[in-house]
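Morning!

This is the sequence you dropped in the shared folder:
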Amino acid sequence: MEVKPSVHSLTLTQELLDAQIGLIRAEFKKAGKNLELAILDQPIKVKAGGELVLEVAGHVQEEIAGKMKPELVGLIRQYTGADRVLISVELTEEVESDVPKLYTNSDKLNHLLKKHGALADLQRRFGLEVDF
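The structure's back. Tokens below.
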């Protein structure tokens, strides 16, 4: 009599990951791995075929994500029961905004004055200054 191994394998899905990601984050938090937690706090997508895509911001996070892959794969398998887990890292560039950076208190005040007209009246009425 011949026994055939079961070929039933569970493919990772977004729903399966979303249901267990809290437990996976808790494992990293318990281990005090805050840099890895920052990566796990960003959106995680599961593509067709069970490929997990980690979005990282910058080369430092990219390196950390590469180092955490084996542990993450093990935890995902443990908590979701998925047999085949592939992780890819996607570097997302910071989008430049049209809003200028507000470094000084004067810059911040001028920005608020443009945004809220009544603030200029309050500033005049109470003699408010940012530089003291």
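Headline: The longest strand covers residues 51-56.

More detail when I'm at my desk.
O.
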